[in-house]
TrEMBL record:
The lineage of its organism: Bacteria, Bacillati, Actinomycetota, Actinomycetes, Mycobacteriales. One of its GO terms (molecular function) is DNA-binding transcription factor activity. Residues 14-81 form the HTH gntR-type domain. The keyword Transcription applies. The keyword DNA-binding applies. Keywords: DNA-binding, Transcription, Transcription regulation. One of its GO terms (biological process) is negative regulation of DNA-templated transcription. This is Transcriptional regulator.
């Protein structure tokens, strides 16, 4: 079992199970553990020199958080890949800021900023008139220079709303600008998610092979008055990254 050579420190006051969990989660996220090799209690007992109780508690929490999974009769296996956490109170369009706040080396590239007539399916989702234009742009977010997600965004906004590409390039959310400049606040989003495979264009954008599994999420953003104001289609690289979502029962 490859490790990051981290040891337990009983003097810190941090429970042993938590230290074991943190060490293993870091190793799993870094890809240091073989996904085909089970993480057994025997190996962990030998490595950490503790009783079974903290080992079992650490494995339970790792399982609850999606870092490992159990195969009946075969053992517990790691789920490699860096976690991308998106909390319940994350503002619409603020994934870049949240990843940066988590200490990740995050970068963003914005392009194709213009007012256009959207495709028919976007027009239908936003309830647009036939010749109604919207603000459109695309955003690529990368972590450690590895493309994470590519989004195509359409916003139903006043014509006077004309953000500078340098503002968006700096990581600020278009939704934040819309609220700041026009008082239009998004309070709800409707999401559809599915698994797809990379087309030639998507493979080029995310630097993967054609046919690679991707996570696709289609989102409609709704204002306080109940009007659909934004549409986003995002594709997410799903091999190097794992996505951890939480929801808020109180709404946004």
């Amino acid at each position: 079992m490859a490790t990051l050579n981290k040891e337990l420190d009983p003097s810190t006051g941090v429970p042993l199970y938590r230290q074991i969990k943190d060490i293993l989660s870091a190793e799993i996220s870094a890809g240091s553990l073989n996904a085909a090799t089970p993480i057994t209690e025997a190996l962990l007992l030998e490595r950490f020199k503790v009783s079974r109780a903290p080992i079992r508690q650490a494995l339970k929490e790792l399982s609850d958080e999606g870092f490992v999974y159990r195969k009946q009769g075969k053992g517990t296996f790691p789920v490699p890949g860096r976690r991308i956490d998106r909390s319940a109170d994350t503002r619409a369009g603020a994934l870049f800021q949240q990843l940066t706040a988590q200490g990740l080396n995050t970068s963003t590239t914005v392009g194709q900023l213009a007012r256009i007539l959207p495709p028919p399916h976007v027009q239908k989702k936003l309830g647009l008139e036939v010749n109604e234009s919207v603000l459109h742009f695309v955003r690529l977010i990368s972590v450690d220079n590895i493309p994470l997600t590519h989004s195509s965004i359409y916003l139903r906004t006043p014509v006077e709303f004309a953000p500078d590409i340098s503002e968006l390039q700096g990581g600020i959310s278009a939704f934040e600008l819309l609220e700041r400049d026009f008082g239009i606040k998004l309070v709800e989003s409707e999401n559809e998610a599915w698994v797809t495979t990379a087309s030639t264009q998507q493979a080029e954008r995310l630097q993967v092979s054609v046919g690679t599994p991707l996570l696709a999420i289609e989102t409609v953003f709704i204002t306080k008055g109940g009007a659909p104001t934004g549409f986003r289609f995002a594709i997410h690289r799903s091999e190097e990254f794992k996505y951890h979502f939480t929801t808020n029962s109180q709404g946004i």
